[in-house]
Design goal:
By secondary structure, this protein is of the alpha/beta class. Helices cover 32% and strands 22% of the residues. Strand 5, helix 3 and strand 6 form a beta-alpha-beta unit. The two termini are 21 Å apart. The protein binds guanosine-5'-diphosphate. Guanosine-5'-diphosphate binds next to helix 1.
Length: 199
């Protein structure tokens, strides 16, 4: 798959914008500021295709990028930003409910968490959304460059326990800043696309 061939397709703000065509979707989610845009940009070797946010939590949109005309990268709206109004929170929940309601198009869920801290309540909720679909998922433990070696294993274990992940769910220690384990994540994405035969 040629990762340089990227086309921004659309930004969906409501249910009618959600794409249900036959192409597999690789879905990225994470709380605001966890580095979701940075992870996507790193994978695609772009500086700013997914916008690195100055104002977290302001954009409740699902962004679709078509990769090499084969698969979508789906950038779900960030969550958990404290200053977001209640109405906006409601809009987020509704959009997620609609997105996950028919999950046949999801080839891989990529949940990005902050490796420095235990997952938040919102992270736990998001993990439940993914688990409820039964789709393959991986956890990206981002900002691993900020951890001491001695902290890494313990923090990964806390993530597995808190999100109640089964052993088959891989947790990838990752740094969007340094590119750490980018090839491992790309491998998981390629595998999911090759093995995808739904819809
Ligand atoms: P988003 O809101 O989840 O899309 O997060 P952004 O991609 O906008 O990143 C939020 C902040 O975290 C920015 O200042 C990034 O430079 C920084 N950041 C993202 N990933 C990493 C990482 O792996 N390591 C470090 N040290 N900083 C990161």
């Amino acid at each position: 798959m040629n990762l340089h061939n990227v086309e921004f397709i659309k930004s969906a703000a409501a249910a009618q914008g959600i794409i249900y065509d036959a192409k597999p979707q690789i879905v990225f989610s994470g709380k605001s500021n966890v580095g979701k845009s940075s992870v996507i940009n790193k994978l695609l070797n772009r500086k700013n295709i997914a916008r690195v946010s100055g104002t977290p939590g302001k954009t409740i949109h699902i962004n679709y990028f078509l990769i090499d005309k084969i698969a979508y990268f789906v950038d779900l709206p960030g969550y958990g930003y404290a200053k977001v109004a209640k109405t906006e929170r409601g809009r987020w929940s509704q959009l997620m409910e609609t997105y996950f309601y028919d999950a046949r198009h999801i080839a891989l869920g990529i949940m990005i968490v902050d490796s420095r801290h235990p997952p938040t309540k919102d992270d736990i909720t998001m993990a439940k959304w993914f688990k409820s679909t039964g789709c393959d998922m991986v956890i990206v433990a981002n900002k691993i460059d900020k951890l001491k070696n001695s902290e890494k294993d313990k923090n990964i274990e806390v993530i597995r326990d808190t999100l109640e992940l089964s052993d088959v769910v891989e947790i990838i220690p990752f740094s969007a800043e340094k590119g750490t384990n980018k090839e491992i994540l790309l491998g998981a994405i390629e595998k999911a696309i090759k093995g995808w035969d739904n819809v």
